[in-house]
Amino acid sequence: MNEQPRATSVVVAGVGAYLPQRILTNKELAQDLETDDAWIRTRTGIRQRHIADPEESTSDLALKASERALTAARCSAQQIDAIVLATTTPENTFPATAARLQQKLGVGKPVPAYDVQAVCAGFVFALHSAWNMIRLQQARRVLVVGAEIYSRSIIDWTDRSTCVLFGDGAGAFVLEAQEKTKEKTQEKTQEKTTSATQRGILDIMLATDGGFYEQLYVDGGAGSSDRVGHLKMQGNVVFREAIDKMSQSVALLLARNGLSVQDIAWLVPHQANSRIMSGVARKLGIEEARVVSTVEDHGNISAATIPAALDHACKQGSVKKGDLVALTAMGGGFAWGGALIRW
After folding, report:
1. Annotated active-site positions, please?
2. Cα dihedral 224, 227, 228, 233 in deg (nearest 10)
3. Count of C-beta atoms within a 10 Å radius of residue 331
4. Do residues 212 and 282 both lie within one domain?
């Protein structure tokens, strides 16, 4: 009997997240800033954000999210073949925070472990790297992490236009190779599963336009100055471009996979601002009830927002097997991207 030909799908085997215990509310922020809860909520939709304790590092947050994702995937750290960690706030300038995470997890063997820097779009960029690693059969299981501590250095806590937006946290996916078979029919050999039913990552797109470099950046760094610097943002430009680029990324992915907006069960946009998220949904024609939103309680945790939001949705029982989930994000650079996943 001839063995059936096989191909590989890349599935999300487990999701996990960690948010620090300390919560900073809008009311607390208003004690030191010329603002109030109503001003912040109206413009951002945020009512609170989580702040890392002084003894917590970026890899500590990543470790807790990763352990939860591994538990959800019923997988041990020793079964991981690579780690890709998205962060704008690395533990040290070098080595990669992923290397520290590898050590703390107890992977117990040399594996590729590296950081990706695409700010708020970082998790989608990291997901793309891990997806291709598995598709090329260079790994069977890859841990993909987004982890950030914005509260410590790059936020100017006197600038109410930016400091009210950000929080700290981490989220993680365990990606896993899953074989799918091809079945012979009387007419021809064809794949049994298609983009309409195939479980796993269907497609990912990435883009960067350095022409927007000065619209969202940190005015310092090891290669340009002797200080870390603070986040600077032209809010009106970021608002407009985020809606356009995030919605376009989802529309492009749908078009090239023969799918429509109606096929999407859940849209998980980068949790930057409730008005941006609503704008993306409106431009795509997706009702708000199908948008996963945690920005009210988490704030913007940059590269960690998408996995943390998905972890919340999974724990609520909202995302079910077979659902088509669309991810999209934009960050400094501008860097942006999206992904389609059959859950």
Report:
1. 120, 270, 300
2. -70
3. 28
4. yes
